[in-house]
Amino acid sequence: MRACWRRCPARWGGERDTVTVVGKLVVVGVGLIGGSLALALREAGAVASVVGIGRSRANLDDAKACGIVDRAYRIDDDWRAELGDADIVLIAAPVAQFASLFAAVAPHLGAATVVTDAGSSKQDVIAAARAALGERFAQFVPAHPIAGSERSGAAAADASLYRGRSVIITPAAETSASAVARVESMWRATGANVSRLDAGAHDRIFAAVSHLPHILAHTLVADLASRPNADALFAQAGPGFRDFTRIAASSPEMWRDVALGNRDALLAEIGAFSEALARITRSIAAGDGDALEALFARSRDARNRLQRDSMLRVRDNE
Amino acid sequence: MRACWRRCPARWGGERDTVTVVGKLVVVGVGLIGGSLALALREAGAVASVVGIGRSRANLDDAKACGIVDRAYRIDDDWRAELGDADIVLIAAPVAQFASLFAAVAPHLGAATVVTDAGSSKQDVIAAARAALGERFAQFVPAHPIAGSERSGAAAADASLYRGRSVIITPAAETSASAVARVESMWRATGANVSRLDAGAHDRIFAAVSHLPHILAHTLVADLASRPNADALFAQAGPGFRDFTRIAASSPEMWRDVALGNRDALLAEIGAFSEALARITRSIAAGDGDALEALFARSRDARNRLQRDSMLRVRDNE
Fold first, then answer.
1. With contacts defined as CB-CB under 8 Å, which chain B residues touch A301?
2. Are residues A259 and A144 in the same domain?
3. Domain extent for A232
4. Given this model, what pLDDT does residue A311 score?
5. In this structure, is residue B295 part of a structural domain?
6. pLDDT of residue A10
7. Nearest residue, CB atoms, A219 vs list B276, B301, B310
8. Residue B205 shares a structural domain with residue B190
9. How far apart are CA A37 and CA A190, in angstroms?
10. Residue of B nearest to A305 (CA)
11. Are strands A143-146 and A193-196 parallel, antiparallel or unpaired?
């Protein structure tokens, strides 16, 4: 197995004065996202038991060894009996698998079992849940934790991943208020800040501030890597290039699904970006130094405000 | 004055067994780049005296207070008498000022004075030096230290800025070999790794791995900042967005000059990037998940190799 990023430091039932907010949690997809949620709840004493479902036996063994799950099943095993008495089922797999996973869990959910997810796009996930869950759709709470890492897999799980980070809930009109409240309590127990947003607004915002930057970083790195002088180029890449392209190291499968899951909003953002790039290109070609300096000053000022605001948020959370 | 980033910890003439590689250094433009070079040489005991020339009195006062310079002159003062006995004159101003700075120093240089620069583009700098320096052109050594920060000004100077970093020398056919050797010795005394490259190759490589990423980051931040819902967008920006856009916080004046100074190579890179973005956009629009996953896997693998190689380089330098 791989070394655990951070082994669960205090198993549940520890010394701290804590409240169990989830009795039994089933995590479908015990990677960085699902594994870190389970570890964080365990460290907070906020979960009684965790069951993990996954595609790879090696990753499930990591999840057990790192103290993430009590029991683990391969996706092809019969784990349906674990669903009836589960309080929360978290779907934390790449989004393209959601439709079949919702269909697999739907017939076995308990009357009080809440289903939630951690997908980066929300309208397509809501549509898949509505189609597969049928009358159980009101028990589904669409959610998006804004955290991640270029690492992946159970061994990368980190109990502090969500501390001070944002988790966005995008309820549908039918979503049960009590189900939303339970999912919000669960995420708050990890140290995250929970807020709500309309699913359409969510998808448009994240197309702009997350999905588009990932596409740009992937495009740049793949284009340079395809050139005959790729080694000479990368040999001169400085810290600015490394920061700019860090997000290009993230999971190909996950980002394939994000790009297709939020396709319309992402295509609109690529279009807006391409137009903005064409404008700045015209200024460069025309030698218009005043226009360039004005544009660079606007982006510097906006970037400095962003840095200041995010540092204030971090401080406020401490 | 602003607080010094790191005050010069050991002034020259200290306890260490060091060799003075530069007697008198004149720094024209005492910002992050020129100030950090002076501080690094002082810390290494490798310079006897430093004279600073700058546009702003406040910044020159910082340079004195932070132990960077012995004497300071405003650009409009008469500082020409400092040039005749200078060993090295470093031009570390935005590139658009180079032509007039070369013209200002040319008549006052000593026979043994070497002129060098720290500009991010090299062919345009060489052309400006050739035009302004006349018979002194052989004493000019074009150089590009690959280091920087989103901070700027003398107070941001840092004696360790160049340690383990790359400095590229791009000599012209006429450049004096002994002048190159002196500039290389100076940069090595800061802890930098010095290498040589053809100026045209330099400009094409840095258009791809530095200038283009800056333009992309500036374009994205300026476009989002111009929207009516800019606050809502930036409020959801996570650590990936912050890393991707960190370089958009750098100096507008410097980047205006880089974009125009390396215009042809930069326009070629913007063109290549735009074509690559159009290809990935077609895959997204067509729902071609296999093509997307293959492209994302290529960029992830290239980015992981880059990370591994740069960590090896850092380790080799320690």
1. 225
2. no
3. 201-287
4. 75
5. no
6. 46
7. B276
8. no
9. 7
10. B234
11. unpaired
